[in-house]
Amino acid sequence: MVCPKCANEFSDDMSFCPNCGAAAARPVIPDTAPVTYTAPVISRAPVHNTPQSTVQSAPVVPQVSEYEERAADSVWKKAAAALAVIALILAAAVVLLVIDRGRLQTELDDGEKSSRAADSRSSGLDSKESELSVKEANYMAKEVFAAASESVEFLSQADCVIGYGVVCSSYDVGQTTSKVVGLDFSNDELTKLINDLLADKDEGLSGIEWFVYFDGGEPVAAYAAQNGDTRIIGSYPRAAAARCLLSFRSAKGTVTLEHAASGKSANDLFGNEEDK
User: Fold this and answer.
1) Fewer C-beta within 10 Å: the chain N or C terminus?
2) What is the mean predicted confidence (pLDDT) over 93-108?
3) pTM, to two decimals
4) What's the average model confidence in pLDDT over 101-111?
5) C-alpha–C-alpha distance, residues 87 and 93, integer Å
6) HEC sequence for the chain
7) Which residues partner with 212 through β-bridges?
8) Is the pLDDT score of 244 beyond 60?
9) Highest mean pLDDT (candidates 17-26, 84-93, 153-162, 205-214)
10) Predicted pLDDT at 126
11) 49: number of CA atoms within 13 Å, CB side?
12) Do residues 139 and 198 touch, judged by C-beta distance below 8 A?
């Protein structure tokens, strides 16, 4: 080796320079031994012997903004308010339905009671109903008699004399006796005159069926009904007492109208229903 002080060469085995006595400088040999890596110690939380199968990772909770929270709260509040309104409406509808049902049942009960009462009254007045109707027919006959009397007064002023016989309102009632009045006045004109006088007295008398028996220029009996088919026939001056067995139309050809007298009622001519 070479002395680092005096540059004298000497053997490598010597530990100092023989020339100047300086310590021999030995070369530095790098350490070629393998480097051992020591891992850092990481602190872990103690595990309480939990089975691996039961250990679950915590779910990731998304972060919600304050605006989104307010919007969600507003939606829920609106939904709750709407449900409350619907509940109130349904409750009111149920109440109204119960009230209407009770009211309808009450009306039905009242109607049934009224119907039974009406049926009871009707059954009690059946016998009186024909009497009331016959009285109305007798009133019609009286008005026909009065119109016939007025006709006589009118015709007497025209020098027309009504003879003996019957004048009818229509063919459904019967046939008018020929030559009942004078030659200057026809039977049809007499019928029209009586009908006109009846219509002037009461509109309800317009269109009724009737016939009048004249004797000696004066009416002596009058018979009237609402139509030619009804058996409720009134008479005047002797009033009918009940419904008749025959009507004007069905009695044609069976009753001689020309021989009706003042002492006979409609029941005398057409029969009495109470006597059947």
Assistant:
1) C
2) 77
3) 0.53
4) 72
5) 10
6) CECCCCCCECCCCCCECCCCCCECCCCCCCCCCCCCCCCCCCCCCCCCCCCHHHCCCCCCCCCCCHHHHHHHHHHHHHHHHHHHHHHHHHHHHHHHHHHHHHHHHHHHHHHHHHHHHHHHHHHHHHHHHHHHHHHHHHHHHHHHHHHHHHHHHHHHHCCCCCCCEEEECCCCCCCCCCCCCCCCCCHHHHHHHHHHHHHHHCHHHCCCEEEEEEECCEEEEEEEECCCCCCCCEEECCCCCCCCCCCCCCCCCCCCHHHCCCCCCHHHHHCCHHHC
7) 167, 222
8) yes
9) 205-214
10) 41
11) 0
12) no
The answer to whether 214 and 166 are in contact (CB under 8 A) is yes
Residue with tokens 């691996």: 52
- CB count within 10 Å of CB 262 equals 14
Token pair in block for residue 247: 């009507």
Poorest-pLDDT segment among 62-71, 163-172, 204-213, 265-274: 62-71
Average pLDDT of the segment spanning 185-212:
89
Token pair of 29, please? 């040999």
Q: First and final CA of the chain: distance in angstroms?
A: 180
Q: What's the mean pLDDT in 201-224?
A: 90
**Residue of 247, 248, 25, 225 whose CA lies nearest to 144:** 225
Q: How far apart (Å, rounded) are the C-alpha atoms in residues 20 and 43?
A: 61
Structure tokens that stand for 261 in this block: 């007298």
Mean pLDDT rounded to a whole number for the chain = 77
